[in-house]
Amino acid sequence: MTNSLRLSSLSGITCLALAIASCPACGGSEPPPQTPAPSVEAREDAPTQVSTSSEIGGLNEEKVDKTFQRALSDFQRCLDDGAKRVEFLGGSVSFFLKIDTQGKVDHAHLEKSTIGDRETEKCMLDSLRTKKWPKPVGGVHGLARKSFDFDPPNDVRAPTSWDGEHVSDAVGKLSRKVSACKKGDSGTFEATVYVSTDGSVMAAGVTPPNEAGESDVDCLVTTLKSATLPSPGSWPAKVTFSL
């Protein structure tokens, strides 16, 4: 009987051990927690990536320089034609161009110029418009800038150099007409004028403060050509001043 009781006790202990081992809540390591799936709200709040092009892209500088160099012969022709009207025509110019995605000039104007003859300056700008330019990368337009200095094509005495004070009073009388011309931009324009010995204007050129002002330049040049300035004496003068 004693042996029976022992077998019965051992059997109970074995069953109890098996029951504990098979029950997760009765000890042992717990399973790792699962990461919750992102909520619908979190997915809706995620930023949407949109591919866009910038307004201004980059241009291959080497190709831009080569294109400007190809225009030099045209520039010289423009200067030669201008020198038939003003024999000592010359000066420096700084071009500003906007190139579109087809490699064509969308806009052109002179940021600076002391050539002082609108016809010659327009001739140079027209030459640049006919050229094929590198296409901009990463933008709708590419910006091209370049400066040149031109000596007078004729071997003649240079005009007398004036500062703006020599013509300030006469230009001041044109203020109403000048203001009427400034429809595209009211900023400061720069003018260069050749003054004949009798005070009349032989030729004039104007550079705008920005792209919008280019549309006002022809009107301003016409206004300046109608002006009577002080006589420089026995030899023509050249003067640059602000408008």
Summing up helix and strand content along with how strands pair, one would put the structural category as alpha/beta
- Largest β-sheet summary: 4 strands, mixed
- The fraction of residues in strands falls at 15-25%
**Largest sheet, spatial ordering of strands:** 1-4-2-3
Which architecture of the largest domain per CATH?
A: 2-Layer Sandwich
Radius of gyration: 40 Å
Helix content: 25-40%
Mean pLDDT over the residues: 84
CATH class of the largest domain: Alpha Beta
Low-confidence parts = 1-29, 37-52
Q: Give the termini distance in whole angstroms.
A: 129 Å
Give the overall form: globular
At the third CATH level, what is the topology name of the largest domain?
Fusion Protein Consisting Of Minor Coat Protein, Glycine Rich Linker, Tola, And A His Tag, Chain: A, Domain 2
* H/E element sequence: HHEHHEEHEEHHEEHE
Number of strands: 8
**Number of helix segments?**
8
- Number of self-contained structural domains: 2
